[in-house]
Amino acid sequence: MRLNFGMIKRSKSPIPGFGLTMGFTIFYLSIIVLIPIVALFGEAFSMGFDEFIRATTNDRVVASYKLTFLTSLIAALINTFFGLIVAWCLVRYTFWGKRVFDAIVDLPFALPTAVSGIALTTLYSHQGWFGQILEPLGFKIVFTPTGITIALIFIGLPFVVRTLQPAFEELEVEQEEASASLGATRWQTFYKVILPTVFPALLTGFALSFARALGEYGSVVFIAGNMPMKTEISTLLIITKLEQYDYAGATAIAVVMLLISFVMLLLINMLQRWSAKRKGMEAI
Amino acid sequence: MTIEIKNITKYFGNFIALNNINLNIVPGELLALLGPSGSGKTTLLRMIAGLETVEETDIGEILFNDVNVAHKKIDERDIGFVFQHYALFRHMTVFENIAFGLRVKPKKERPNNEEITQKVNKLLKLIQLDGFASRFPWQLSGGQRQRVALARALAVEPKVLLLDEPFGALDAKVRTDLRKWLKELQTQLGITTILVTHDQEEALEVADRIVVISHGKIEQVGTPQEVFHNPANEFVINFLGSVNLFHGRVEEEGRLNLSHSLDNDDTKFLIRPHELEMVSKSSADAILLATVKHIQLAGSQVKVELTHLDNEQKNILVEVSHYEFNDKNIQKGDVVGIRPRQLRTFEGGAGI
Amino acid sequence: MKTFNDAKSTQNESKWVQFLLIGTAVLFLLVMLVVPLITIFIEAFRKGVEAYFVSFNDEYVLQAIKLTFITAAIAVPLNLVFGVCASWAIAKYSFFGKSLLITLIDLPFAVSPVISGFVYVLLFGAQGWFGHWLIEHDVQIIFAVPGIVLATIFVTFPFVARELIPLMQEQGNDEEQAALLLGASGFQTFFKVTLPNIKWGLLYGVILCNARAMGEFGAVSVVSGHIQGVTNTMPLQVEILYNEYNFVAAFAVSTLLAILALFTLLLKYMLEWKVARDLAKLKTDE
Fold it and tell me: Assign residue B253 a region: left if phi > 0, alpha if psi is -120 to 50, beta otherwise?
């Protein structure tokens, strides 16, 4: 890969190594990321517009979009709610085992998705601890969208908690004291002063959790049952089409998902910049 | 509202922050709690506000209109609090900041939107920031923010206003302007106000009464006049304004011997710069001789720095009016005699 | 200005509200996270301790473990070098397109692992862009180890970079410039000045990278071909065992991965504190 470094304006930094580090960085990224993604879009274009539309809008595919989107959204919302509570408790209170719980929040991050997948499936299955309790009550979890949602809650939780913790930690006591001195109840202070302050972080956590859920595969594929039109998520559909050598079909779905990923990435970046700007305004 | 502080003692762990504080606050007055950092003045203020945790080891009562509020939380005390760093709500406009206290009132007491708008606008006018209603705190200067903080506290019509070093974070000019403005406002509104500051100039200029605090104890309570001209002890005179320290003895016939050597029998004499006079070195009234080192003419008074003739390390500061100074024709390097116009000692010695 | 943890604030919820919130939080974490974790170990030992160890006596399982380690052993160092280069370039210079570069580095976090694997199939698969060329030269990437390594690199390369970029940006260029003025070469400066400063962040990034590299499932699943004993990593082997209803073995292998995860969490926790402390020290030095 030859690149003209004259095009990349750099400050006259006396520190050597720009050529080397930048060169390797761009080389690496090109091979690992850029070329493959270009290939994906290239493949999509070579299909032709009509075929592309057909591949992305047939019933089975659309059903998978709906399922993926809905379960991801619900999981992200639930994570936002509980994640808020968890983050608040971890920052504000001391209780027995707090350090352990704090570390455990990252478990979905560290555990391979396949492992979480089979663990959750076993847990909620007919003979599983939770399944035994829930199924007689009429709640069938495995092989239903509910099961998918639970798996997505599992893998998305760390995002909300870890984004909110620093935001809560940086709150200034005086804001709460001022609010109380003006007669606000504790709930009013939380709702009108604290929550608006951490709102960018909350939104960022939600977006991260949502984006992650959209693309999830391993932890979902065991508990879902993967019945077309019912519990088949989009990522699984890509793999299924691949196994059937329907490259075109797989590509079409992949492109749609990738575009959504780009949009999410952009959104998250903007949210993070908004958070940073808010922080900057405080430091006046 | 009358406020009475009775026998308040507060501990932070083993550290005594406030040691048996007793204080009666006069309704409508502007009282300054004056002291160096760590003296306990902010702790006292925050205890009055209800912002300090009450430990089991803490003793005493705080009476608002004869009712002990020591265990009442801050939102039940009907006070207004202004923080040193304003603590404005960043995500709200100036209008919403000021309206906050009104909006969070329980439903029964809450004014409707029109009333709130009226009130807020009136306050904006009072703080001379009408037109700023839709600005955000980060768009305001320090002085403007502090005024908004004040308006916000006043909006709920508290019975007492508490200010925690409100001008500490501002530039000197803004500080002087704002404290004049605060004094006028307070007089106009007549609201009991307690102000914490470490700036003695500020306290002297603004307060009706000053409470001088050091190491958790009250050193003196009095009007600015009393505290400055009749300081109760060494700490007070040292803290308010500059002062010269001499060691010496009163000898026979009332003559004063201010030798520079420190002897345990010697008495400490504390004399303010404007209470010293420069006379001719041969004058019989002079109690010591000194060399003029530096003359500062810029200022409302002339400040002359001298050193003791027999001891270069001992500095003496004299303040005279320009008229007096011009009459005497003193220059740098001259040796002059120093004569006290007034003497003060706190170890039982009499004033001359 | 004081934060909650600096001051002992009077601003707090009533005791029963605290109790309720803590209860909810703990219950949620127990149900959603802890119980599934425990399940792994319980299921692994369901048929007794002997059955557990027998699971590892299998050739395929051993090969899978071996492949997992080999993949990590290749992917992590490469990503380490990349991470250092990228953060060096980003932290020490200003150039056009820097934020685009940073966004690009974040890409694998937003992209589904399945798509990450899929794009390599498109490139290097039999029908792929380079398919013919590879077949002619008898090189196999997809459905072989190289493909697995490639896919693993894709999903894990951001970890080291993301740790180092803010750290190096915060540290600034002063020390490096001082070293250069004293006559050190670029490499000397890096090893003697920069590296000691970033060592905790580096270690942290490497640990996360490794955990993900060993545990990646989705991306590797697409490129692997699932050929037992050849192209199966541990997570893939778990899947196969599970689908064959060999639950004990599936969970037995899972326990290894779970232990790795817990170990990662422990190291992460310990290092987090160190990295935060380093960053805080820098900020107060300003």
Answer: left
Cα A199 to Cα A145, A275, A279, distances in angstroms: 29, 9, 12
Give backbone dihedrals phi and psi of A139, rounded to 5 degrees, phi first. -100, 100
Q: Which of B207, B263, B246 is nearest to B339 (CA)?
A: B246
Which residues are CB-contacts of B118 (< 8 A; sequence separation ≥ 6)? Answer: none
User: Do B102 and B110 meet the contact criterion of CB atoms below 8 Å apart?
Assistant: yes
Q: How many CA atoms lie within 13 A of A44 on its CB side?
A: 23
Helix, strand, or coil (residue B48): helix
pTM above 0.80, yes or no: yes
Asked if residues B81 and B164 have their Cβ atoms less than 8 Å apart, the reply is: yes
3-state class of B312 per DSSP? strand
Taking CA–CA distances from B48, the nearest residue in chain A reads A181
DSSP C68-125: HHHHHHHHHHHHHHHHHHHHHHHHH--BTTHHHHHHHHHHHHHS-HHHHHHHHHHHHS
CA–CA gap between residue B333 and residue B328 (Å, rounded): 14
Candidates A175, A191, A184; CA nearest to B90 is A175
How far is the C-alpha of B151 from the C-alpha of B120, rounded, in Å? 8
**Is residue C282 a contact partner of residue C171, using CB atoms and an 8 Å limit?**
yes
Residue B221, strand partner residues: B211
Our measurement of the distance from residue B287's CA atom to the centroid of its chain's CA atoms, rounded to an integer in Å, reads: 34
Report residue B270: phi and psi, to 5°. Answer: -120, 120
ipTM: 0.85
Q: Nearest Cα to B24, choosing from B81, B66, B56, B72? A: B66
* Pairwise CA distance, residues C23 & A85, whole Å: 10
* Contact between C10 and B85 using a beta-carbon 8 Å cutoff: no
Angstrom distance (rounded) from CA A105 to CA C127: 42
- In tens, the pLDDT along A131-189 reads 888 888 888 889 999 999 999 999 999 999 999 998 998 898 899 999 999 989 999 99
| Pairwise CB contact (< 8 Å): A238 & C114 | yes
- Phi, psi at B248, each rounded to 5°: 180, -170
Distances (CA, A) of A48 to A35, A39, A51, A254, C160: 20, 15, 6, 15, 39
Query: Taking CB atoms and an 8 Å limit, are B53 and C10 in contact across chains?
Result: yes
Interface test mutation site (partner C, options B48, B51, B58, B75, max chain C beta carbons within 10 A):
B51
